Amino acid sequence: MAGGPPRPSEDGLIARYFAPLAGPGADGMRDDAATLTPSPGCDLVLTADAIVAGIHYFPDDPPASLARKALGVNLSDLAAKGAVPRGVLLTLALPDDWTEDWLAGFTEGLAGALAGAGCALLGGDTVRSGGPALIGVTAFGEVPAGGMVRRTTARIGDRLCVSGTVGDGALGLRLRRGPAWAASLDGAMRAHLADRYLHPRPRLPLAPLLRRHARAAMDISDGFAGDLAKMLGGGRGALVEAGAVPLSPAAAAALAAEPGLIAPILTGGDDYEVLCAVAPEALDAFLSDCAGIGLAMTPVGTVIAGDGPPAFAMPDGTRHEFAAGSFSHF
Amino acid sequence: MAGGPPRPSEDGLIARYFAPLAGPGADGMRDDAATLTPSPGCDLVLTADAIVAGIHYFPDDPPASLARKALGVNLSDLAAKGAVPRGVLLTLALPDDWTEDWLAGFTEGLAGALAGAGCALLGGDTVRSGGPALIGVTAFGEVPAGGMVRRTTARIGDRLCVSGTVGDGALGLRLRRGPAWAASLDGAMRAHLADRYLHPRPRLPLAPLLRRHARAAMDISDGFAGDLAKMLGGGRGALVEAGAVPLSPAAAAALAAEPGLIAPILTGGDDYEVLCAVAPEALDAFLSDCAGIGLAMTPVGTVIAGDGPPAFAMPDGTRHEFAAGSFSHF
After folding, report:
1. Shortest Cα distance from A225 to chain B (angstroms)?
2. B35–A52: do the CB atoms touch at under 8 Å?
3. Three-state SS across chain B?
4. pLDDT of residue B244
């Protein structure tokens, strides 16, 4: 930390960068704790996910984007559980070469993302990391009592649906390495994939529809195939029509150029879409409600009896398992 | 990660080491989120603090001790806010050379510390740190609605009190470096200081007494003098009788051998004791209630009008300010 302009203390950082984001219950970040009380008749839903420079993101990504990403990966979990965001705590571990410019960009991005989600910063901790940066978020949402949508409660016969499009995040990550297939995409397609990797858009409007119609749900941030496997087990498998899995035009163009991309599309992670299991009799109402809020929701398969990994019926008539399963940074 | 025995996946780690600690609401760690609902008529109190290897602790400290420390620094904040612990989320960022032995020791220590505090593990995240280990805890407690004891609500004339003894943590840290004054301490004294540094004992039994009697409170984990300064301001200063600040026999012996240790004792941090401001008319009842639960609580000074840093009346009749104030790892 020698050389360069003097750094503010942790208290100075809090006052300058974080106190302006403080929500009700945070008392202007002037305390060591905050209060939060769920609305009457509601449970709080809690989730915590951290992202690390060089492991979960590129260290030179814009700091405002990283704030959006760190918040988005957590809000995506809340959305998939049917919860409405209320607030977050931030644990920010900074490398020794952090700059005030970086922090100003980060908090600006955080402010925008919090406002977009209608939730508040309630507190946190800022420390030296002694290594790469780590951005840890704990997010709080609420659901009507007992209403959290679980991961493991799908039943045989339920229809499997996924929001938005699958694989963009994984392709957006691979695009950063300059692959040959990138030449088959136009500029708008490349920009779409890059944006989908960098800027998760948690499916918050989906939360009440999941509570109303879904038997089980989770986001597919670790990859569609692996997360589907996590949802099932215990005598429940899945049969997925690979050709039904919704792809963006950019992902479809990439796949046409390089058929091997089907594996990262189905297993690669960094997709902040929601996978859910819906009873057959509830499917029409669910899809209709999704259409009503302008949210793409696609049936892609069925929960079947069995204990193996999810089976994918490929367009060529073969069946395939994606054994690599869930992507893990660990 | 090449070489050595194969490592379990993140899911494998969760199932083996963390799922056995899962409390109600965590659903056996089989979901991406947990639920928590405060008791009727209660607010949740939230706090998050992280500790980093090489910055907040020695990397070769026993992992069970580190688990106790990471939990203790957070539960200490809850205790100082008058809150009863309910549960925690854990963000564990592991260096590339982590071992299963380390993790087994860590989770064993965590289980013991959680049981001792009567609270549960609700979830969390395990990631690669790309550098030193980071142990981040988000802790949840509850207080009767509106009952959180604030940091900044002391009034002029309030008596300042502190629990336990001050300075042991800072001296325990310094002891690790083999200082000359260590020769003046017997083995039990050295063990006492080392233990006080390594094993915070959050003052959980104090929480209801703070709610009943204290106008303001905080823990002194960043050092007595600096944390007292944070409590005040806005025309409120403090006059502290330095000779009244309670010292353990070990700290008193160290101070007798090396008078300059008064500075780290009063500013050094790593003390998980509670500083509180009590209205003069409430003092006797507060001290009596503390005595009733066997908890040492010592009046050390008074909130006075003024805007400077806290003034310490020294035993030699001089007044001293400890301008270094609050210890910061940042």
Report:
1. 15
2. no
3. CCCCCCCCCHHHHHHHHHHHHECCCCHHHCCCCEEECCCCCEEEEEEEEEEEECCCECCCCCHHHHHHHHHHHHHHHHHHCCCEEEEEEEEEEECCCCCHHHHHHHHHHHHHHHHHHCCEEEEEEEEECCCCCEEEEEEEEEEECCCCCCCCCCCCCCEEEEECCCCHHHHHHHHCCCCHHHHHCCHHHHHHHHHHHHCCCCCHHHHHHHHHHEEEEEECCCCHHHHHHHHCCCCEEEEEEHHHCCCCHHHHHHHHHCHHHHHHHHHCCCCCCEEEEECHHHHHHHHHHHHHCCCCEEEEEEEEECCCCCEEECCCCCEEECCCCCCCCC
4. 97
Contacts of B10 in chain A (CB under 8 A): 328, 330
- Give B84 to chain A, closest Cα distance, Å: 13
Residues B118 and B243 grouped into a single domain:
no
Residue of A46, A218, A329 with shortest CB distance to B89: A46
A25, part of any domain:
yes
Q: What is the pLDDT of residues A269-321, one digit of tens each?
A: 999 999 999 999 999 999 999 999 999 999 999 999 998 899 999 988 999 99
| A51 lies in the same domain as A124 | yes
pTM for this entry: 0.94
Distance from CA of B80 to the nearest CA of A (A): 9
Decide if the complex's ipTM is over 0.95: no
Closest partner CB to B32 (pick from A127, A131, A151): A151
Mutant choice from B9, B31, B103 vs A, greatest count of A C-beta within 10 A: B31
B136 and B179 co-located in one domain: no
Residues A66 and A182 grouped into a single domain? no
| pLDDT-based confidence at residue B80 (cuts at 50, 70, 90) | very high
Last residue of a domain, one of B118, B144, B170: B144
**Pair (B174, B303) in one structural domain:** yes
Last residue of a domain, one of A81, A112, A144: A144
8 Å CB contact of B138 and A89: yes
Residue A193 domain-assigned (yes or no)? yes
pLDDT tier at B8 (50, 70, 90 boundaries)? confident
The number of distinct structural domains making up chain A is 2
Residues of A in contact with B143 (CB under 8 A): 35
CATH number (domain holding residue A165) = 3.90.650.10
From chain A, the residues in CB contact with B131 under 8 A are 129-132
Structural domain for A122, as ranges: 10-144
Same domain, B139 and B163: no
Average pLDDT score over residue span B241-254: 97
Instruction: For residue A179, tell me if it sits in a domain.
Output: yes
Each residue of B24-78: pLDDT tens digit? 888 888 899 999 999 999 999 999 999 999 999 999 999 999 999 999 999 999 9
CATH number at residue B87: 3.30.1330.10
Q: State which residues of chain A have pLDDT below 50.
A: 1-3
Together in a domain, B167 and B288: yes
- In a shared domain, residues A202 and A54: no
For residue B195, the distance in angstroms to the closest alpha carbon of chain A comes to: 24
Given this model, what pLDDT does residue A328 score? 53
Confidence category of residue B10, pLDDT binned at 50, 70, 90 = confident
CA closest to A124 among chain B residues: B48
Facing residue for A31 by CB, picked from B33, B151, B328: B151
pLDDT of res. A325 = 54
For residue A314, is it within any domain?
yes
Q: Which one of A43, A123, A134 has the shortest CB-CB distance to B48?
A: A123
